[in-house]
Structure formats: C-alpha cells, structure tokens
Amino acid sequence: MIIVIGGGPAGRLGAMHLAQAGREVRLVEQRKIGGQCLHDRCMTICALNDVARLIEQTRIQKDLGILDCVPTISYPMIWRRMREVQERLSSVLDAETREAGVEIVYGAESRLEGGRVFIDDEEVRAEAVLAATGSRAAIPDIPGTDLPGVYTYQTLPAMSDLPRRMAVIGGGVVAAEFAYIFNAFGVEVEVIARHGLLKDLDPRMRSAALRDLAGVGIREQTTVASIEGGGRVRSIILANGEEVEAGAVLLATGLVPRSESLQGLLKRPDGAVIVDQRMQTSVENVYAAGDVIGPPYLTPVARREGLVAAENILGHEAVMDYRCIPQAISLRYDLAFASTDGDDGSLTLSAPAPSGSGSFWDVATGWTGLARIQVDPESGRLVGAAAAVPGASSLFSYLAHLMKQGITVADFADIIEVHPSTDGIYWLARYAGDILQQKKR
Length: 441
Description:
Elements: E1 2-5, H1 9-20, E2 25-29, H2 35-39, H3 42-63, H4 75-99, E3 102-106, E4 110-113, E5 116-119, E6 122-124, E7 128-131, E8 135-137, E9 150-151, E10 165-169, H5 173-184, E11 188-192, H6 203-212, E12 217-219, E13 224-229, E14 233-238, E15 243-245, E16 248-251, E17 255-257, E18 262-263, E19 286-288, H7 299-313, E20 327-330, E21 334-339, E22 347-352, E23 370-375, E24 382-389, H8 392-404, H9 425-440
Parallel strand pairs: 1-2, 1-7, 2-3, 4-18, 7-19, 9-16, 10-11, 10-16, 11-12
Antiparallel strand pairs: 4-5, 5-6, 8-17, 13-14, 14-15, 20-21, 21-24, 22-23, 23-24
Helix pairs in contact: 1-7, 3-5
C-alpha cells in the first residue's frame, strides 16, 4: 500500500501515476480533491478575471459608442455560480482519479511521524508515502489582521458584497491579480507594497502590468503599521502615520508550506520539507511534492514534482528539472514569460503586439500589448521571451518547452502562423534571425 497525503495537483497526479502502474494507492484528502488550485486560487482567479475582463471590454465599447451601457454585476452570484462550477470540476477529478485505480478517503486527518503513517490516529502500514499537504496564506505580523473584513484568498468567499474601498497588502502576483479584478468591479483599490509591486518582472513587462492597473492606487516602499477598526475593519495605518480608509483588506503576502502534520522530516525555517531532486525527503521511502516543499508554488510544477516522486517510488530514476518554467499573470491581458540560464549579453528585441481576438477594440486606446525576446547572438538560441497579450499563457506552455530544447530564431523562418493572432513572438524571432544572418554575411 502506498499512501498519498493530499489531493491537490501534486498528490493527485502522483497517486494516479502509481495506480496506473499497478500499485495499491490510498489518497487521503481532508477537504475536496483538486486542492487549492481548483477551490481557492487558480480557478478562482480565472472565474473572477473572466468577469472583470468582460466589464473592462464593455467599458471600452461603450466609450466607442458601440454599447449603450456597462452591465452591473452581482458579486454574491459570482461566488455562488463559481462554486457550482468548481464542485462540478471536483466531481470530474474524483471520477478520473478513481477510474485510475486510486482509493480516495475524504475528511480524514493524516500525519507522519518519520516513516510512520497515521490516518485519524490509526497507524497504517505503508511501503512508501507521498506527502503533498500544500500551503496556506501567510499572515503578516501586523496588529488587526484578525478584524472582521480582513481576508486572504482562502477566506475571501466570506466577503458578502463589494466594498467601496479595498486595501490590498502585498507586492506579488496575487496582489496584482486581485487588485485588477476588484478595480474592474468598481471598487477603489489601493495596493500597499512593502518593497515594489511586481518588482522582479522585466521592466517592460512590469510597465505593461502597470498599464492594466492604471485605475489602482499603488504605494511602494510602504510599510503597514496596523489595521484599525471597531466591529470591523475601517482603515490601515501606515508606518509614516498616514491613515488609508478601507472597507475591506486583502492580505496577499505570500504562502507558507502546510507541514505541521509532517513530523520527523528535515524542514527549512519556514516549514518547507527538504527534498532532493528525486523528491525524496530525509526519511527513507517518504517523498514530498508541491507547495509543501516551498517555492515556486506553481500548479504545473507541483504536478511534475508529483510525477517525479511517483516514478522514484516505482524504482524508476527520475529527477526534477526546474529550468525554463513558464509563468503567467492574469490582468487585463495575460502576461507570460520564460527564460533559460545564461542570457547575459543576449540580443533583446521588443515590439507592440499585433491586434487580434481580445485586443482589436483596444487599438482605439493605443495599446494592443507587448512582445519581447532575448537571443544568444552566437548560437541564435532563444533564451528568453515575454508577452503581454490575450492568450499569452497558452502560447508559453509550448514556447518554454521549445526553448528548453534549444530552439533558435532560425527555426522560426519557415513557420506558417495562425492568423489573426495576438502573438508577436514569431515576428520578433524572424527579425532577430535576419539580423544575425546579416551579421554573419
């Protein structure tokens, strides 16, 4: 018997892979299968962002005289309908997992004590364990975070309706995505970032993101001293003494691994379980994957880690490769990017993206997105790419894989592209290929 603890992307994919290989697998999940990706984070962002983009598009078309009004939204109904869809998706995942041969146990508490496994305090013999217990929202050490009206991405469904003003504390992707969503919904949003908002993004991509966040107030290099209120949150006090009014506060201050139930394993100070490239922990036959081992906290990475762990449990040597992982941010457009190692001294080209589905009417506003590439001038290899356009996230799943395989800009010369398309990467790659060819001549 192999025990998998956690039914999110890492645990579920690992469990299915093991069961399909003929092993007896029991997956223990406290809540619902699908993990935070389905129930709290990725799909929630997708659902809310779809509505936000629709509202933004109708505003543009109303300004152009095409539509006569911008629709109002029912915030409670968004959550109600979204939960119905998530429940349906969870049912599909449940059926898919069981059909693969996995036994699923819901509502039970699992824990590890070294190599010993307990399910609801009953010890269960296991030849191997895959721990995929995920993460939770990090709560900053700020007075007032326990006030009614203060939320994380996990508790946001408790917000019954839209506030007039909202403060988002944080400077990462989640802070930017929720700030865009609620601003599109008509809320006055103020982002308060201790350092910078999306500070690690390429400067051009960051500029593209800030265009999408044009209606959001952004305070950078700003520290929150406290969150104030009586029966519920009223305002935020900054370190300089300034008071910022807020009817709701969203804490978007990162994630921490959920590893309290995993004892006897080596961990980092933040609780992340330490693993090697094979996903093996410090305890023999105990593996870990997904958010519980720490950053980058990305669903596709968690899935791959779960599969690598499963392969090694089966006795097949496999290692996790973290090179050239594509990432995306969902704002008005998708912002997607990927890079390989060794891009110093690269040829960098950028250009406005062509208009297409999702951006045609934005021509009137003077902005249809951005494409950017980095090329190794000696080999012609594409070593970095970024795009801020509708649909960029789908494009980069394939582009990052090709970059890892060593694709060169010369390989783009014979591509016949889909048209119309908002993808400007191939045009830049062709142009870069011409430049390098001319230099060789």
